[in-house]
Write a structure and sequence with these properties.
mainly alpha; Mediator of RNA polymerase II transcription subunit 11; activator; Helix Hairpins
């Protein structure tokens, strides 16, 4: 199975989301057929059957597509978890951004300290050594 791009996966999930709304609408319409008085010229049993069939069709389609998404996540070695997600596991896989931010913070701290040392040298005449 070819690996989808992130955009494709997001579009697929968006389509699933839309179909979940349609699924709930079909369930609602099926229940309305059973609980409302029939309108003249309609067969409530046939209406119920049509909405129930649409419900089952959508449910089957959604289930298959969600399972496909899970398989693709597993193939990409992205952990599929139930409940809370351990952000540490995800971060430990690739922490380039974290390392870059840490380097920036250290550089900023170094610049601040060097500025403080330079300011102290200028006002007190003391020499302070800064290790490189």
């Amino acid at each position: 199975m070819p690996s989808p791009t992130a955009a494709t996966a997001i579009q697929d999930l968006s389509n699933i989301d839309t179909d979940i709304s349609a699924l709930l609408s079909s369930a609602s319409k099926a229940l309305q057929c059973l609980s409302s008085p029939p309108t003249p010229g309609t067969d409530p049993t046939e209406e119920f059957r049509a909405h129930a069939e649409e419900y089952h069709r959508l449910l089957s389609s959604i289930t298959v597509r969600l399972r496909r998404q899970i398989v693709q996540l597993q193939a990409a070695e992205i952990p599929v978890v139930s409940g809370t997600i351990d952000v540490g596991v995800l971060n430990s896989r690739n922490d380039v951004v974290g390392r870059e931010m840490e380097a920036e913070l250290w550089a900023e701290a170094r610049g601040f300290l060097e500025g403080a040392v330079d300011a102290q040298r200028g006002t007190a005449g003391m020499e302070v050594e800064v290790d490189s």
